[in-house]
Amino acid sequence: MIEKSYYIETYGCQMNEHDSEKMSAMLGDMGLKRVESAELADVVVINTCAIRAKAEHKVYSALGTLRIIKSEKPELVTIVSGCVAQQEKEKLFKRAGHVDIVLGTHHIAELPAALQDVWRDRKRRTLTEWSSDVESLHTPAPVKNSSSVSSFLNIMQGCSNFCAYCVVPYARGPEQSRSMEEVLAEAQRLTAHGVKDITLLGQNVNAFGKDLATGKTFADLLEELNKITGLERLRFTTSHPRDFNEGLASAMARLSRVCEHIHLPLQSGSDSVLKRMRRGYTIGDYLKNIEVLRNKIPHVAITSDIIVGFPGESDTDFAETMKVLATIRFDQIFSFKYSPRPQTAALKLEGHLPEDIKRARLADVHKLQEAITRDYHSAAVGTVQEVLIEKTRNSCGQATGRTRTNKIVNINSSREFQPGSLVGVKIIRGLRHSLIGEI
Ligand code: 5AD
Ligand code: SF4
Fold it and tell me: Does ligand 1 come within 6 angstroms of the Cβ of 265?
């Protein structure tokens, strides 16, 4: 029998990356070999992102390339998964008639069956119904190979917040937590395979358990996971400021394996914008969270997301965002121009802003944050950091790893470091996106 092969292209967030890892494992279990280009493959999966219009454009451009490949190789099976698939459903066939399977966000686990069906009858299909118990949430995180140091672990699926700008609740459905027992068993399995660093994944991880009504909170989950021997580091993303509380900060401070880093998206520094975004907190609430974190956890790294140019954002609103950024001094932020998304409430708001205003505001935010991040990196020079080695050599011949605060460190050393080992590294230089260290 001729061995079939697959190619997978992933757009968007860590959730998508992790779904792609799961789909790769499923295709591997079916006997398909992974290849690194669509031209060489019998099956192509495009795992899509819909968070901003730009992400969606990239998907359609990838589909355009695939159309040409498929015209020369009609037996190629084309699968579109992820958030664009979920939103577009069968409408996707209109824009991309060469697609065979539209695989919605609740149907990742059905990929093997759908592929077998297409091979059998050559008919295209759409799997986009919502499910109240998403099967792929229970699909184990694949252990990539024996030297895998880090792994994602999915603890929830979806989001029920309906922030006014955000497509996620429409593309991923309502919040669903996995059971605590299942998460613990999964973490134990991963550590038994040598994983040292687990990142818990969910759109809103600190709301974990709210939908299960077991009385167990996210902090309780961290407490249990912290007992696992062999696990060195526990991380999580993303947290919502509204579901943040002192109990979580105390757990982070107390539990030795939980890293000193939190990603806590602020979105805007103006109370009136936050209100129209339907974020459910004020700047005062947010600043209190920061104070609690910094009081309880010395050297905690705090990162955030910012949207500029939300409908109706005035010069004064934007000045408030700049002021709050300068006050809080995040370690790092991801900043975006507001992008109107289908179905979302913000579409109907007054005061949509022109592109040039959004662009100028984004540039101001970038400039300010770059200086702040550079200051943090310079301040790290001379300190000794615990680095978990991820790669023995990068393209410059340096070993690379991360600090507990999630900063990338490239190490100048001729020594061979084993992935997964913990090394004390003296920081000798701070760059824009990383640190340089020596032993
Ligand atoms: N426009 C711009 N940025 C957005 N985000 C989510 N939706 C939009 C949108 N419509 C950003 C938010 C979120 C991050 C993942 O993406 O900052 O935290
Ligand atoms: Fe989107 Fe808000 Fe849910 Fe985050 S919390 S995924 S921004 S709706």
Answer: yes
